[in-house]
Write a structure and sequence with these properties.
alpha/beta; Rossmann fold; 2 domains; 4-stranded antiparallel beta sheet; 8 helices; binds calcium ion
Length: 228
């Protein structure tokens, strides 16, 4: 069996390293991230079995990271909080945390909660590799897209673009941002290619199934929405 992958998001390097060593000792594969925004990027583009998420983080706090992550993924999340962050704790659970730990904590307690989160996960439906909006489903591992029960054939670029749009539900994305995130820097800033590929996706999804997911935000860019 593959090792369980755990992401620790904690900007206090000593604490992060300590938890990492303890978890590795238990046989987990452990990755570290110290910055909120960088963590969210990782969480949306890679697959983890569990995430340990501190609340106070640079660039984007843990509650906001979790709120955005929960729009697309159901991966178990254990929040870390300082003793005096009671409000944060409550907000953390409201925004979809599965559990929380008050720092400082005994490592045995964290290990017990991780085991409990995994048990819980194994008995519930595993959606961690799926992005879903209405009848549209994108499978990150299999690289497939279906609408209801019908498979949609996408090229690699179309798939990457759709994935990026779905991961940013309800967020307006500029052409520059899309170009950078989907194509990388080597395209040298010609955003026409974004419009071309948006057109391809619309013809394969929005026009074909009579639903409108991809919206043009005039003068800005595009937004993926799931409207009833
Ligand atoms: Ca912190």
């Amino acid at each position: 069996m593959d090792k369980m992958r755990i992401l620790i998001v904690e900007d206090e390097i000593k604490i992060a390293r300590f938890i990492q060593l303890e978890l590795e000792h238990e046989g987990y594969l452990v990755l570290l991230e110290h910055d909120g925004r960088a963590a969210l990027d990782k969480m949306l583009s890679e697959s983890y079995d569990l995430i340990i998420l501190d609340i106070m983080l640079p660039s984007l706090n843990g509650i906001e990271v979790l709120r955005r992550f929960r729009q697309v993924f159901e991966t178990p999340v254990i929040m870390l909080t300082a003793r005096d962050e009671i409000m944060d704790k409550v907000m953390g659970l409201d925004s979809g945390a599965d559990d929380y730990m008050i720092k400082p904590f005994a490592i045995e307690e964290l290990l017990a909660r991780i085991r409990r989160a995994f048990k819980h996960k194994n008995t519930s439906k595993d959606n961690t590799n799926m992005l879903q909006s209405g009848a549209l489903q994108l499978n990150l591992l299999k690289h497939t897209v279906v609408y209801a029960t019908e498979a949609i054939n996408l090229t690699k670029t179309e798939f990457d673009l759709l994935k990026y749009l779905m991961q940013n539900l309800d967020i307006t994305l500029t052409r520059d941002t899309i170009l950078e995130k989907v194509w990388g820097y080597e395209y040298g800033g010609d955003t026409n290619v974004v419009d071309v590929y948006i057109r391809y996706l619309r013809s394969k999804i929005d026009e074909k199934y009579d639903t409108k997911f991809i919206h043009t935000v005039r003068g800005v860019g595009y937004q993926f929405r799931n409207e009833k």
